[in-house]
Amino acid sequence: MTSSEKHGRGPRLVIGSNPERNRAHNRRVVLEVIRTHGHMGRTEIARRARITPQAVANIVDDLLSEGMLVQLGRLRSGRGQPPIQFAINPDGPLTGGVEIAADHIATTLLDLSGAVRAQAIAPLQSATPDQVPGRVSEEIDKLCAQIGASRDRLIGFGAVMPGPFEVEGMSSVGPATLPGWKGIDAKATLSRAIGQPVSIENDATAAAVGERLYGAGRQISNFCFLYFGVGLGLGVLKDGVPLRGAFGNAGEIGHVALVPRHGLPSYGPDGALERFASLYALREKLAASGRPNIDSGALEPLFTQNDPVLADWIKQAADYLAPTVAMIENIFDPETVVFGGNLPDVILDALIAALEPLPVSVSTRTGRAQPRVVRGQTGRFTAALGAAALALHDILSPQLSLEYSPAVAAARP
């Protein structure tokens, strides 16, 4: 037994030489270097990727023949023959992402540079497993038709669904989890319908990724994203990498019971945060006032009209969310906490304003570069963007570190 084994660390893993594995890794490195920097010549690619010029030349030729790269011409730089420039092909392969919620699906297509090529939100009458896969497939076909793309260009796909995943005896409030999916292999079911391997992600985690690449988190690598789906979730980005947890359930904050700033605490399921500070809770209040089935698009006019039920919910939600923000800060020490998801921007702004005064936490300090709480910038597409981006990084990136890139910034929706 080795010393490592004696101390519970396990035997040291030794990875042998595998030319095919190395080549696949090098392809991803080359694609990521080009994607991150926009365009460059073979010599510069080799220098940044730390791969031999001959290997880079072979990889670039392969990627050109596969339609992943395009040749832009020569860039004059000093003496001698100017280097030929290569860039990600905007008309090449695509990745897609879909958010499957209780009442809608949001779908996005990205090219390999991370640019948004098409996106749409469609109402969903039934979120059951016999209806959803076909609807997702239809939405993909519609988006492909918008940009004149063949379905064959799709090489990766991500889907986000409300959690928690694989947990017995625990469900979100109301319809925050999808009906009929218990015991269903969502990954296999969606993969068959789409004709591509599908990765399944927690909606709040995907939303944090979408905000990192396309929204308020573009210049922030450590932040928490409080996601207003139907329920309430938390996505965490640490050094640009999403915190998923062992089973994909990290950030199930909607099930936490907290003492509000004002009023009496509740305990157990009835005291769950989602019962008070979620879109579902707001819809319950509106239904009780004689207005059932209010969707997200109808909320902004209610706010403009100073609707008293909506105003009361904002006050109540803020009383629960202010200590929630302090708790998040004390646990994760983020640069900021981002509020976003399926609530209109004006309501998110009002909710953030109603948080003041926030309780003292490790984030209570002068000279902050960011406010303690900010509104997200990607709107209702944030989770679908994150799902498509995660599929893109699974294909391109040698490691999942969601770095800011000029190409993605220029493509912000």
TrEMBL record:
Residues 1-21 are annotated as: Disordered. InterPro entries: ATPase_NBD, ROK, WH-like_DNA-bd_sf, WH_DNA-bd_sf. It comes from the Bacteria. Gene3D superfamilies: 3.30.420.40, Winged helix-like DNA-binding domain superfamily/Winged helix DNA-binding domain (1.10.10.10). Pfam families: ROK. Signal peptide: none annotated. Belongs to the ROK (NagC/XylR) family. This is ROK family protein. The lineage of its organism: Bacteria, Pseudomonadati, Pseudomonadota, Alphaproteobacteria, Hyphomicrobiales.
